[in-house]
């Protein structure tokens, strides 16, 4: 579950200017692993 939150935070950091970098682990997941969360980031922002 923590991995999913890290991936969602990475998607928000990548697609927005929200300062959520402090919620990412020391070794953040690869962007390809967080691609599933891109639509969720759109829902949050849009």
TrEMBL record:
What keywords is this UniProt entry annotated with? Transferase
For this UniProt entry, the molecular function terms from Gene Ontology, in alphabetical order, are:
transferase activity
- Could you confirm whether the keyword Transferase appears in this record? yes
Designated name of the protein: Adenosylcobinamide-GDP ribazoletransferase
């Amino acid at each position: 579950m923590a991995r999913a939150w890290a991936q969602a935070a990475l998607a928000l950091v990548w697609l927005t200017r929200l300062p959520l970098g402090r919620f990412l682990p020391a070794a953040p997941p690869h962007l390809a692993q967080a691609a599933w969360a891109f639509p969720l980031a759109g829902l949050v922002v849009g």
